[in-house]
Amino acid sequence: MRYTMSIQDKSEIQHPKKKEYEMVYYGLHICETIYKVRPEDIIKVFVTNETSRKVPKLLSYCAQNKKAYKIIEAAELEKITGSVHHEGIGMITKKAKKIGTLEKLTAEIAKAPSPIIYIDGVSNPHNVGTVLRIMANFGFKYLIGAHDMTELSASAARMSEGGAEFVTLYKSDSIHSLVEWARTNNYTLIGTSSYSNKSLYKYKFPKKSIIVLGHEVTGMSKETEKAMNEMLVIPGTGLVESLNVSTAASIIMGEYFRTVN
Known about the structure:
By secondary structure, the chain is α/β, with parallel strands linked by helices. It is built from ten helices and ten strands.
């Protein structure tokens, strides 16, 4: 069974006033990060009285720059965001950058080189958001998804704890397109498998690495696995067959950061 990166949630479809170029975000850390990184994109802020005391600079900015904000009850905020996990704050903003193509990524790495993450069948917004959080922590600037990758959901953005604002999304038409792009740009495709005999902890990562993350249940597709330049194993006791994708991502990216930087 194939999984696609369709990561919509209710917060993106329930708000009646959200326009096509707008996005509803919720959660304290992601909202604070948007204020720090791209405050000009904020359109309107909704906040509970309790949480308003935690974001005085954000509300002051809104007042000074004629951006609407409203103090509301938690129940009303739940309706606006479509989630009970709003943490007392939500905001409507202009959407971040659109998902880019591999051609655009070529131009970007020329200006700002970085290791890359490719997700193969990872669809759960909690996992996607956590991967973005880990990427931001370890300096991975670019995430590539499959051809059917959709825009980041508010749920995934919240789980990223602000990390989503520091990662740019791209998509590849096919694994064959990604392989060709990697070859042309001297990147090495690296996957993991419990059946590999090459240890992650003995591997010397190339600076130009694309780390491939597969679905935690089904793993990488056979087609993707065949395209890998390297397959590594995360050593352990062997008592469990696999790790959650975000747990594996943290271990692999941490090891890349430790050995390359």
